[in-house]
């Protein structure tokens, strides 16, 4: 499976050398259970590593406890303020666009459906939401912050999935490449950044170019913390668009796993939405954000809300106009957005902290307000020719 020009072929067969070696050693030494137990007590950056931690794990945690030395902290602060100003919209985009986008890539849907615990989309969504909230806290990378330990654990979680799928011969490496390979991780990084920005644009949310650039930059930092080779990652939104377009043109399509995971996601959010009257809004919003072709591949049902949901940009535009002209309204709407996002996250987590642990086996029956005023509006770069 290669590009016409072969540029990303090596990325399909590359994993994460450091995390992969750490996980392999933990399994070989029979220390995965010990590691998971001890790591439940390490949830904040700067905390001393617990006694009894396997040496290989201690070395990994020491090597990955700092963000990359190239981080521009002023840009990260812009990203944090962008998130605060748009948190409820970002949560909506993550839930109804980014996750379905993962499912529209058949090999990615196959991987997600084959991994322990992902039969339950609430866990996946809760972990993603909590991870994003941790990232956008002021102390995210400082002592006491929760983001760095979460990133360290998620990186090992990805490595453990690679370990299981290959060891148990449940993945066709020759055809599909390495599970959770570098190319997939790069595009996963874009699903949670570029596709979120696309969704906000589609919803009519006011964004400055500076805010959009900062948000994408923050996810480049996240990618680096998760073992993504940043030399292969596009540095700008325009270049990211070209990379993602080529990736989707090669890989996206219908699959039974993608349709099944989407049905689970719809069922989950229909349970979260109070009552039943607004249940069809879930499907309508997914269809609006991912488009009819992808929605049909994912077997998203058509509903009577498909047309009304297209009015969302006009309604949100009115609210944002009010916000732009009234400091009190801006405060009130930001606060409402914060509380709404928190309520959604607490519903998914059931009020618990989500722990990122190395699965000891895979389930056999799974099948397989801005610092810059929004006067210079961000708009997506044009779609590139495939």
Explained architecture:
The structure is a single chain. With 386 residues, the protein is an all-alpha fold. It has a domain at 72-144 and 164-352. The chain has 17 helices and no strands. α1 (17-28) packs across α7 (147-167). It is globular, with a radius of gyration of 20 Å.
Record keyword descriptors for this entry.
386 residues; mainly alpha; 17 helices; globular; disordered N terminus
Structural class: mainly alpha
Order of helices and strands: HHHHHHHHHHHHHHHHH
- What is the terminal-to-terminal distance? 16 Å
Mean pLDDT: 80
Give me the number of helical elements. Answer: 17
Mind summarizing the main beta sheet? Answer: none
Helix content: 55-70%
Number of strands: 0
Q: Residue ranges: pLDDT <50 for 5 or more in a row?
A: 1-5, 328-333, 335-354, 364-377
Shape: globular
Alpha-carbon Rg, integer = 20 Å
Instruction: Please report which band the strand proportion falls in: under 5%, 5-15%, 15-25%, 25-35%, 35-45% or over 45%.
Output: under 5%
